[in-house]
Amino acid sequence: MKIGIVGLPNVGKSTLFNAITNAGAEMANYPFCTIDPNVGVVTVADIRLDFLAKMYDSKKYTPAIIEFVDIAGLVKGASKGEGLGNKFLANIREVDAIVHVVRCFEDSNIVHVDGAVDPIRDIETINLELIFADMEMIEKRIDKAKKGLKADKSLETEIELFERLKETFDKGQSARSMDMTDDEYHLINQSNFLTIKPVIYAANLGEDEYADVSVNKHYKTVEDYANKQGAAVLPICAKIEAEISELEADEKLEFLKELGIEKSGLDLLVQESYTLLGLISFLTAGPDEVRAWTIKKGTKAPQAAGKIHSDFERGFIRAEIVAYNDLVNNGTMSAAKEKGLVRSEGKDYEMKDGDVTLFRFNV
Q1: How many other CB atoms sit within 10 Å of the CB of residue 154?
Q2: Distance CA 55, CA 333 (A)
Q3: Lowest-pLDDT range, 84-88, 230-234, 302-306?
Q4: CA-CA distances (angstroms) from residue 359 to 60, 350, 352?
Q5: Using 50, 70 and 90 to split pLDDT, how confident is the model at 63?
């Protein structure tokens, strides 16, 4: 999963990204961590792996990971090449979802690029740049489809869809806001439009407001805006996240307790990203390794096996599965088997979050 972080200057985007990068520093052994300095890799905290690693005394522990990409150069006019415009657009087209950092804190020492804090204005500035970029792309897609119409009449449906989408852009609305069927969504999503990507608005609050968002007058406006857009919104404090990223695990828990917070903003962001993208994790476990594998909800067992290795999918026979909670409640795999809780599932089985799985396959 790759998440792009966007935001205007001086909204806390860089502070948040640096906190994320620090949080992911322990994963530096992943080869892609050093491909680009603007990519931070974060492990997905999963207590289920802790239990399984202890049960099997596993040699290797591999959690799921998320790549966070710092999308630089976003200013008014980015769609026309202002700032790092074209580079920004190329980067954002590659991500699965967008975290839009919105300034909701007041601080006279940090100048706002537009003179005053106004989160809705800031959101719409960025959204319009994305829409402008998509408008340019939609015109090219329509022209291309019309040229191919003589050879392929099925392109009429595509042209009709893209012309509807163009009308949506002309109204200053995102692709996400348009009513469409699942097939239409799939086509638009495949076409890599920026405004079809799911969005989480990260409302960056002051340190004294984070534990109680009701004291921040801007948060409610962002929440209302996100609800109308069908987007998610999360309160976050980039300064606090930066402090947390420097702490050891036990110190982090104590720090959050002192603040009256159960989870860090980063943990909530990871959780919301999974929900937003419809993702789950199944687990594999043994003496050699425990590992979480990220898949889409609704993925069938053979395709899940293919996440591990393409041979597993091609030669799939069955999946031996026990629900994580059933395994915990019985203490061992053998005890779960004795109670008939380990199931043999075939090719039509849809994987569930927390399935502890062993795939059987022919080579």
Answers
A1: 8
A2: 9
A3: 84-88
A4: 19, 14, 15
A5: very high
Alpha-carbon distance values, 241 to 12, 218, 223, 245, 273 (Å):
11, 20, 21, 6, 17
Is 310 exposed, middle or buried, given 0-12, 13-18 or 19+ CB atoms closer than 10 A?
Answer: exposed
What is the rounded distance in angstroms from the CA atom of residue 268 to the CA atom of residue 280?
A: 15
Closest of 263, 260, 345, 236 to residue 300, by C-alpha: 345
The answer to whether residues 312 and 360 touch, using CB atoms and an 8 Å cutoff, is no
Give the model confidence (pLDDT) of 240-265 as tens digits: 888 888 888 788 888 888 888 888 88
Q: Are 336 and 322 in contact (CB under 8 A)?
A: yes
pLDDT at 76: 59
| 354 Ramachandran zone, left/alpha/beta (phi>0; psi -120 to 50) | left
User: ∠ CA(255), CA(259), CA(260), 5° rounding?
Assistant: 115
Beta carbons of 284 and 308 less than 8 angstroms apart: yes
Q: What is the DSSP string of 60-114?
A: EEE--EEEEEE-----TTGGGT-TTHHHHHHHHTT-SEEEEEEE----TTS--TT
Most trustworthy range by pLDDT among 26-35, 65-74, 101-110: 101-110
Separation of alpha carbons 178 and 168, rounded Å: 7
Contact assessment for residue 63 and residue 45, using Cβ atoms and an 8 Å cutoff: yes
Structure tokens at 57: 């005394």
**What whole-number distance in Å separates Cα of residue 58 and Cα of residue 43?**
18
Range in 130-134, 343-347, 352-356 with the lowest mean pLDDT: 130-134
Q: And the tokens for 300?
A: 């069938």
Residue 278: closest CA among 264, 299, 292? 299
Q: How far apart are CA 95 and CA 78, in angstroms?
A: 18
Which residue is listed with tokens 């090449």? 81
Half-sphere exposure of 127 (CA within 13 A, CB side): 24
Indicate the pTM of the whole model.
0.80
Higher pLDDT, 246 or 170: 170
